[in-house]
Write a structure and sequence with these properties.
Elements: E1 2-4, H1 6-11, E2 16-18, H2 22-27, E3 34-35, H3 41-54, H4 56-67, H5 71-81, E4 85-89, H6 95-107, E5 110-114, H7 117-129, E6 135-140, H8 146-155, H9 163-167, H10 175-178, H11 185-196, E7 205-208, E8 213-214, E9 217-218, H12 221-227, E10 231-236, H13 239-250, H14 255-264, H15 266-269, H16 271-282, H17 286-306, E11 312-317, H18 323-332
Parallel strand pairs: 1-5, 2-3, 2-4, 4-5, 6-7, 6-10, 10-11
Antiparallel strand pairs: 8-9
Helix pairs in contact: 3-4, 5-6, 8-18, 13-17, 14-16, 16-17
Length: about 325
């Protein structure tokens, strides 16, 4: 078996087997990896307790007791995955991955280990986002179709890091309604790194202007710090286009969800406006409800924008909401 540094390890196309326990894997993993646990969560806890209380030798014996009956199953599971070569890692590149690699190589597979394990991958992620990246931040009031514009810019060749896409959330009280579930913060960071590590860091990287928290996940602290110092590009589209976008996006959402999201900002709206918005939702008058919510979000956004006026490099005021034309203009200055 051979051990490779993180860049070498990630450059291969062989399947990645993550031999950590299921709960470790669920907390966060290399996005392409398959969970191939040497120990169950309960077994790992038992071995860890023995290691702490009775020493290494006793813990190893208990580990062998757990693994012995499963060895044939590991071989058969590897055969089902297909191929003859695998990449493999555990937490720190220690006994778990080395033991599994020994077993698979004894049967005839080829195994490459990640030097330093998953911990090294996490270090590489943090190192990447600690670079002096050339971020370009697209900002604009709620409903300005920023995500859609960024994706159109990506189609035109721009390097775009889709924060909301990786977070599985649109970043507001109403974002909860559309979210299909979010990853852990740890895995959110891995998803961002998996996208960004292919970028040419000598060229601009576009992101949307987001808060530190996107729903219940947090941005990589270093990335957020760079974003807060980077050039911002402010998009303004007509209010009617913003309303069209919001009504289209939330039109299929159950009324209960929209009412719950409105209750989430009741204190900010005030009871009278919140009750009015909920009444509109119950009547199916989503455009009127959206107008009330936008009034609150616009005030909130304007305060944030006023605090970073010095970062605004370009102001784009459009008389339309045509995503393709806006993307083209932001990237190339053409209407």
């Amino acid at each position: 078996m051979h051990s490779h540094s993180c860049p070498e390890f990630l450059s291969s196309n062989d399947p990645i087997l993550d031999v950590r326990s299921p709960s470790e894997f669920a907390s966060g993993h290399i996005p392409a990896a398959l969970n191939f646990p040497l120990f169950s969560d309960e077994e790992r806890a038992a071995v860890g307790t023995l290691y702490k209380n009775e020493g290494r030798e006793t813990a190893i014996k208990k580990g062998l007791e757990f693994v012995g009956p499963k060895m044939r199953g590991f071989i058969e599971a590897a055969e089902k995955i297909g191929g003859t070569s695998f990449r493999m890692h555990c937490w720190r590149g220690g006994m778990r991955s080395q033991s599994m690699a020994w077993l698979l190589e004894s049967y005839g597979f080829q195994v490459s280990l990640l030097k330093g394990g998953y911990k090294a991958y996490r270090s590489a992620m943090h190192d990447f986002f600690s670079q002096d990246l050339d971020l370009r931040v697209l900002t604009g009031h709620t409903g300005s179709q920023k995500t859609e514009i960024l994706l159109a810019m990506r189609a035109l060749g721009a390097q775009v890091l889709d924060l909301e896409g990786a977070a599985g959330h649109q970043g507001s009280s109403f974002g909860n309604v559309l979210s299909q579930g979010q990853p852990s913060t740890e895995h959110f960071h891995n998803l961002l790194y998996e996208e960004a590590r292919y970028f040419d860091c000598s060229k601009p990287i576009w992101v949307e202007d987001e808060s530190y928290m996107i729903g219940r996940v947090a941005l990589v602290s270093s990335l957020y710090g760079i974003k807060e110092k980077s050039a911002h590009y402010h998009i303004q589209i007509p209010d009617e286009a913003r309303l069209d976008h919001l009504v289209k996006g939330y039109g299929e959402v159950h009324k209960k969800g929209l009412i719950s999201a409105t209750e989430g900002i009741r204190k900010k709206l005030g009871n009278e406006r919140a009750d009015e918005a909920i009444g509109f939702i119950q009547e199916g008058r989503l455009r009127e409800a959206a107008q009330i919510a936008l009034h609150y979000y616009d005030k909130q956004y304007q305060r944030a924008l006023d605090n970073k006026k010095a970062l605004i490099k370009e102001e784009y005021i459009f008389d339309h909401g045509d995503i393709q034309r806006i993307a083209q203009h932001v990237l190339h200055g053409n209407t």
